[in-house]
Amino acid sequence: MAILNLNSSVRVTHVSTATAIIELDNLTILTDPYFSPEGSEWIGKSGAKLVNSYQPPLGLEDLPPIDLILLSHEDHKDNLDDLGRQLLNGRNVFTTTDGARNLAPRKAVRGMKPWETVSLQIGGGPRYEITATPCQHLPGGECLGFIVTAEHFGTSDGKPNAVYFSGDTVYIEELAKIKYRFHVSVALFSLGKAMVPKPGGGMLQITMDSKQAVQLMRDIEPDIVIPLHFEGWSLFKEGKSEIEEVVKEEGVEDKFKFLTPGVETKIL
C-alpha cells in the first residue's frame, strides 16, 4: 500500500460514520461531523428511522484545532448532527449550494457545485485547492464529495497528487473523470450500502456497497482507500466484515486500509 509521490505528511483519524480528521502538514480537515452518543434516534427525510448503535470514540473536546470542514450535505443527521453544527460557527466550511443557504448566515460557509474548484489559504500557509465532486444520494437532495490538492503535494504522471473524500454516494460513472484530472494518493470512501424505503414501496440504495467501492477504486486508481461510513446505523447493510470479504475476493485487499476508530494513523 505504498503512497507514491505525495509530498506531504498525511494522518487520518476515523471518528465515526463519515467523520474523519485529516491532517495534511499544517492543515487539519474534518469531514461530515457527527458526535452524538450511542442510542441516538431520528426520523430521516425518507421516513426511515435512524438508530445509532455506535459510541463515537472522540468528543468535541478531543478534537485538534480544525481549519476546514468538508460537509457532503447538511440535511442528514448522520452526516451533521446538533453537536457537529456547533463546529460550523466561524470555521471554513465547504458544502452544497443548498447547504450553504440552509446554514446561513454563517459567512465562512461556501456552497459549491460539482467540479467547481476554489482556493483556500489559512494564515500564511500554503494555498490549497478544493474541488467538489458529484454524488448520487437521496433523490431531490444535494450531496458532494471533495478533492484536496496543493502545489506542494507534487504531481504524478503530470497530474496533481490529491486526497479524495467521496461523500455519501452510490457508484456513478461520472466519478471516473477523477482519474484523468488527479492522481488520488489517499481516498476516503463512504460505504455501508445504506438502504432507505422508496415512497412507492421497495428499498433504495443511497451509499456504495463494497463491490461498487472496488469498481470506483479501479476507475480512479488511488494508492490507498480508507473505508468510512459502515458502522453503527440500522440502515447500513454492509459492515466491516462484509467489505473485507468482498475486497479479498476481488484481490484488492492491499488497497483498502481500515483504521482503528479514534486512533490517529500515519498514512504517509
How do you describe this structure in short?
This is Metallo-beta-lactamase domain-containing protein. The protein has 268 residues and is α/β, with parallel strands linked by helices.
Description:
It is a single chain. The protein is an alpha/beta fold. It contains 5 helices and 18 strands. The strands form 4 sheets. A 7-stranded mixed β-sheet has the order 8-7-6-3-2-1-18. Strands 9, 10, 11, 12, 13, 14 and 17 form a 7-stranded mixed β-sheet that branches. A hairpin with a 5-residue loop joins strand 9 and strand 10. The chain is globular, with a radius of gyration of 17 Å. The mean pLDDT is about 95.
How are the SSEs placed, and which strands pair?
Elements: E1 10-16, E2 19-24, E3 27-31, E4 41-43, E5 49-51, E6 68-70, H1 82-85, E7 92-96, H2 97-103, E8 109-112, E9 117-121, E10 127-134, E11 144-150, E12 155-156, E13 159-165, H3 178-181, E14 183-190, E15 195-197, E16 203-205, H4 210-220, E17 224-228, H5 240-249, E18 265-266
Parallel strand pairs: 3-6, 6-7, 7-8, 13-14, 14-17
Antiparallel strand pairs: 1-2, 1-18, 2-3, 4-5, 9-10, 10-11, 11-13, 12-13, 15-16
CATH topology: Metallo-beta-lactamase, Chain A
**Class by SSE composition:** alpha/beta
- Quick one: biggest sheet? 7 strands, mixed
CATH class: Alpha Beta
Helix fraction by DSSP (H/I, runs of at least 4): 10-25%
Distance between the termini: 11 Å
Stretches where pLDDT falls below 50 for ≥5 residues?
A: none
State the CATH superfamily name. Ribonuclease Z/Hydroxyacylglutathione hydrolase-like
CATH architect. name: 4-Layer Sandwich
Instruction: Write down the overall geometry.
Output: globular
Assembly state (oligomeric): single chain
Binned strand content: 25-35%
Helical run tally = 5
Strand order of the largest sheet: 8-7-6-3-2-1-18
Strand segment tally: 18
The ordered H/E elements are EEEEEEHEHEEEEEEHEEEHEHE
The overall pLDDT, averaged over residues, is 95
C-alpha Rg (nearest Å): 17 Å
Count the domains. Answer: 1
Organism: Trichoderma harzianum (Hypocrea lixii)
Domain Metallo-beta-lactamase: 29-230
Keywords: Hydrolase
GO molecular function: hydrolase activity
